[in-house]
Structure formats: C-alpha cells, structure tokens
Amino acid sequence: MKINLALVKGDGIGPEIVDSATRVLDKVATKYGHKITYTSVLAGGCAIDATGVPLPTDTVEKCLASDSVLLGAVGGPKWDTLPGNLRPEKALLGIRKAMGLYANIRPAKLYSALHDRCPLRAGDGFDLLIVRELTGGMYFGESGRRDGAGGVEAYDTECYSVMEIERIGRVGFESAMKRNKKLTSIDKANVLESSRLWRETMHKLAEEYKDVEYSDMLVDNAAMQLIKNPSQFDVIATSNMFGDILSDEASQLTGSIGLLPSASLGSGTRGMYEPIHGSAPDIAGRGIANPIATILSVAMMLRYSFSLANEADCIENAVETALNNGCFTGDIGGKLTSNEMTNKILELI
C-alpha cells in the first residue's frame, strides 16, 4: 500500500515525538511491504512565527490532499498573549473543521506493567474508549465580549443539532458493538437545554442498537465515577467540552498522559492522529518526552484509516512488551530518553 501522510510537527516536543513515531511507522512499513511518503507542513506557534497566522492556507490544502495527518502538539507560553483568533490552538480547530473530522476517539488503558503507577486502587485495571464530538458545542459556538451591567462580560454559546448528536452517537454505538457492547452517554441534562436534546437524541438512537447496554450519566457524576471505578466504563460518548475534560482525567489514571493516543475521524477514511498531551515546552529539546502516545497514534492510524490491523497490532504489542520489560521514560518512573524508548520499541517490531 502507498500512503501519503501530512506531518504537522508543531511546537515544543512536537517535532521530537513525531520523529519517533515516523521511525516506528517506517519500520512497520518495511516489514509489511508498504510505501510511505511524508509532507511536512506548518501549524500552531511555529506557523505564527513563520507566516503570521496559526494555520496557513497551504497547510490546509496539503492536509486535504493527504491520506491522513499525523500531528505532534501545538502551543506554548510564547503565544499565550495573542488574541483568540491568532492562538496556536486555532490551528487544531481549523484543521478538524476543514477535514470534516467530527469524532475524536480517545482510548485509555491501564497496562499491567504500570498498575502500581496508577494513582488509584484500580483493581484489575481498565480499558475504556471515549468518543468525543469534535466540531460542535461551545468550542465552535458564537462567542465574544459585550458591555454588561457589571462591565465587560464574555460569552461562549453551546449549540448542538440533532444531526451532530446522531452522527457522533452512532460512532459511539458502533464502537461499543466492536468492544463489550456497553455505552455510557454523558451530558448535563438536568441544567443544559443542549444536553436535554443530546439525551433525547441518544435515546432514540439506542433503539437501533438493542444489543448495546445503554445508560445516561451526568458529567459531574461521571467525573467522580472515573475516579471511583473506571472499570465500569467501556465506551463513553459525550460532547466536545465534556470529552476534552474527561479524557484528560482518564489519562491520568493510566499513569501518564504521555501514553494516550487519539484519532479524529469524519465520514471518510482520512483522519488526523495525535497524542492527547500538549507541547510541554518546559521539556522541549531535552530528549526526555515520552513518545508512546504518538507511536500509538500511528497504530490507530493504521487501524482506522487504512484497515491494517496486523500492522497496528504489531506496534501496540511492541509498546506493551517494552513496558512489560521495564522500559520506562521519566514520566512513568523510568530513566529512558525519548530516543532510547523509541529504540526499545523498534527492537520489538
């Protein structure tokens, strides 16, 4: 198979972890007889420095011309004082919108080798999947500032349509059908009208998936239940903002946010794949970032965008074996550098 990937290395540790991931991808491609070409493009803070905007038109065009996109991380304190429309994070929203990527898939798994590094008594561990709506809600609603009785006030609008809820809900149900046939829909229907529509729509959709054990949960309770008993969850479906927050919470239960990959998908096979962590500018250039989340993002890419399950399994098994062999970077209690961790995984492919 010939695969054309757009690389958005981004800021901070982004270039380092993307380089690690492409090394692993190249070895897997050689092993299974695939040909991969890369096109590097600018987005985020580095794009602001080079072009004055976080997402140049050329970047969007090359992402749309690719088979999929691999992204490192964007942002950092250097650009924190810029106006909202010029912040590096706008690049992520822009790419997702341009590519029509409405479903964010974020797995969270506690590896047996890291059981003692989980901050909780997690029993036998957990393996859950968060399906987050990606192009609607408060992050894309009307926002601004205006004069109010107490001076300047700011507002952000949460808005969802039945269509938006149905399509992300269907991703959640279909994901549950491939796992343990259990779906928890998370909302705030006791307060928010958008959540009441969310719940009504999910209930109607549940009628099509009689084999899936379906339940509703309020987001504040969900935040508590993730701490109390994460193993109760299989697939979680939720809105953009709730999913953003809960997936970061879930990531900490795995031992490190440096372990968690993600996939952003739309109606076709093309997607954007990235670690869920940020650009970590405090450790950029030191060679100590954990590359596993980005390497596992590549595995998700092979599985979801190219239906290469054996290749994806090869990477995931190598990562798990490396962890079982005691290969840890600093964030999970070890001493390996990024390059050393990558080399250990390469040896196991």
Protein described:
With 349 residues, the chain is α/β, with parallel strands linked by helices. It has two domains: 1-102 and 267-349, Isopropylmalate Dehydrogenase, CATH 3.40.718; 119-253, Isopropylmalate Dehydrogenase. Helix content is 40%, strand content 21%. The chain is built from eleven helices and twelve strands. The strands form two sheets. Strands 2-1-3-12-11-4-5-10-8-9 form a ten-stranded mixed beta sheet, with helices on both faces. Strands 6-7 form a two-stranded antiparallel sheet. Strand 8 (182-187), helix 6 (193-206) and strand 9 (213-218) form a beta-alpha-beta unit. It is globular, with a radius of gyration of 20 Å. It starts with a strand and ends with a helix. 47% of the residues are buried.
